[in-house]
Write a structure and sequence with these properties.
This protein is α+β, with helices and mostly antiparallel strands. The chain starts with a helix and ends in a 17-residue tail after the last helix. 14% of the residues are buried. The chain has helices spanning 2-53, 58-83, 88-105, 107-122, 191-203, 239-257; strands at residues 130-133, 136-143, 147-151, 157-161, 171-174, 176-178, 181-185, 208-209, 215-221, 226-231, 233-235. It has 6 helices and 11 strands. The protein has a 5-stranded antiparallel beta sheet with strand order 4-3-2-1-5. The chain has 3 domains: 11-87, no CATH class; 124-174, SH3 type barrels (Roll); 176-257, Alpha-Beta Plaits.
């Protein structure tokens, strides 16, 4: 019983001695970390304001701000460790060995990170542009270090790992898209009149753009119809709406003007009948 009490008293004295010896250092280290947090935020805001003046792209600006904050916080962490009397050289050596093992275990994650940095600095696409890649397409919602998020026309979100993007064939539509509406008219139709009618219809559509100029031309001569390609330009946001509106407007205008939209036809001849 006396031995247990002596052990407890010894532990209490040791704890008190450690608190007296390291308590002030620990408090100062915590204050240094708190100060580093606020200084990092302040430096980040100053960096953001500076980068805004030079009109740097959003994704690259966010990356640089994050790196500045991490750098500032890292400096304050080093100061806190030095205040606690931690030897940094052995610590850095241990972190290097541990980092090598972690890198081997996280090759996929590091691959996404390297690809994300490549995308951010080479800028094959920007936030707000419409792209098609890896059998997926959509408007770029955000470009992160590990993945890229696309907003799909059906209001869903597609998250693509960056390593699936780097090195792949990318179709970047930008902020504009071209409709591909095809109209079949009969061979008896006045083609010049039909083309002019389509042009007047496109001029009345609010979702279409006058510049670039829409493409309207005879596409092909089918078995029973003349195919006219109607390819006006619109914004990415209006693409789905504009396609339906243009098709409906052309149909209604052709009906009003008496322009016949061709239907599939077959001519059958009977041989050997009286």
């Amino acid at each position: 019983m006396d031995a247990s009490l002596q052990t407890l008293e010894h532990a209490q004295r040791t704890a008190i001695d450690l608190a007296i010896q390291f308590g002030p250092r620990l408090m100062v280290a915590l204050l240094i970390l708190v100060a580093g947090f606020f200084v990092g935020r302040w430096v980040g805001k100053m960096t953001d304001a500076l980068l805004l003046k030079i009109q740097l792209e959003l994704t690259l600006r966010q990356l640089l701000i994050r790196m500045v904050r991490i750098l500032v916080m890292g400096l304050f962490i080093i100061m806190a460790l030095q205040n606690l009397g931690v030897q940094l050289l052995p610590l850095l050596a241990g972190l290097g060995v541990a980092g090598a093992g972690i890198a081997l275990a996280m090759q996929g994650v590091l691959g996404n990170l390297a690809a994300g940095l490549t995308i951010i600095f080479t800028r094959p696409f920007l936030v707000g542009e419409y792209i098609s890649i890896a059998d997926e397409e959509g408007t770029v919602e955000s470009i992160k270090l590990f993945n890229t998020v696309l907003s799909h026309p059906d209001h869903s979100r597609v998250v693509i790992p960056n390593r699936k993007i780097a090195g792949e064939i990318l179709h970047n539509y930008g902020t504009l898209r071209q409709l591909d509406v095809r109209v079949n008219v009969s061979y008896d139709t006045d083609i010049a009149r039909a083309l002019e009618t389509i042009r007047s219809v496109l001029a009345t559509q609010a979702t279409l753009l006058a510049d670039p100029e829409p493409v309207i031309r005879v596409m092909a001569l089918g078995d029973s119809s003349v195919q006219i390609a109607v390819r006006p330009w619109t914004t990415v946001e209006d693409f789905n709406t504009a396609s339906g509106e243009v098709t409906r407007a052309v149909l209604e205008t052709f009906r009003d003007c008496g322009i016949q939209i061709a239907l599939p036809q077959r001519e059958v001849r009977l041989l050997g009948t009286p």
